[in-house]
Amino acid sequence: xxxxxxxxxxxxxxxxxxxxxxxxxxxxxxxxxxxxxxxxxxxxxxxxxxxxxxxxxxxxxxxxxxxxxxxxxxxxxxxxxxxxxxxxxxxxxxxxxxxxxxxxxxxxxxxxxxxxxxxxxxxxxxxxxxxxxxxxxxxxxxxxxxxxxxxxxxxxxxxxxxxxxxxxxxxxxxxxxxxxxxxxxxxxxxxxxxxxxxxxxxxxxxxxxxxxxxxxxxxxxxxxxxxxxxxxxxxxxxxxxxxxxxxxxxxxxxxxxxxxxxxxxxxxxxxxxxxxxxxxxxxxxxxxxxxxxxxxxxxxxxxxxxxxxxxxxxxxxxxxxxxxxxxxxxxxxxxxxxxxxxxxxxxxxxxxxxxxxxxxxxxxxxxxxxxxxxxxxxxxxxxxxxxxxxxxxxx
Length: 395
Ligand SMILES: Cc1ncc(COP(=O)(O)O)c(C=O)c1O
Hints:
By secondary structure, the chain is α/β, with parallel strands linked by helices. It has 14 helices and twelve strands. Helix 9 links the parallel strand 6 and strand 7.
């Protein structure tokens, strides 16, 4: 007997290619292979002890039941207060939703605002999940291509040309996964002004907001004007900043109607984020000095690795790499070798046991993504192998 077919949603969705590369590298490692993994999108540090202690205390104290869907009140309040300090005007607890991960925050933001046939503008290279999420909501992803020649940033002219009467949302992700690009305030101001003029939602994914280098700073579209604030849904979380990827805790802050819609969707899809985990996140807000110290320790290590990897990549004949200023990724250009990014990555893993993610996964052929959330030793060894691999290829 044949069973009914899977849904159109299940049939159209592509599984996350970044998680797939990471799983493959981990499987090879488990089989005893000496893999240099540059695929992972997660910090290689432990979660800060004070955060773990706060979570363990809550667990022992019986915080093991359902919590209010949008999050425990103390955490929502602390998040709102943090954003207000950063220039988010008029935001309070009711504007905040704590979700099971930044990924869920993005998806709920899209579900709350996108209807069938609505166009969503996504600058490429993009984080792999945006187009899939838009399609799962019935929307239509529209891409704007940015290259290394413009620092992987879209220009106002490109955005203007992509906006149509059917556009309902523009996705902004600064610092970016996969390129590490960080928009300056001036650059974002122009893009946000166009979004306001077109009256479209802005999904500002700021999950890497605390990981910037070279003296770069980040800024949030929601702080630009009351009009921008009304249109912007700001997503973040604890995973990347505090090495809490497995905790599954994301945040979202938006206007009251959007936040309420997101909370309603979450009440039907997942209910609250894990209750005792939220108490760990609360410690981040209650102990800002300890949080800052933990973050600084990671950021110093990331910056050192970024520069070593960036220099090493540019020293390999045929590779060129833009010096990005955020997150923990570099996105070198491999076009000189004439291979597709998929083929380049597959052969690199097979022949030299170096795991990277093909640029095609992020909507940009001709590049590969390397995460430097890995040790100095792996970076040095991986660079040697990559140089050997590139030397074998024809240019
Ligand atoms: C750009 C971007 N947004 C959101 C997320 C989701 O993070 P989380 O682990 O909190 O779901 C990621 C994770 O890789 C990301 O790279």
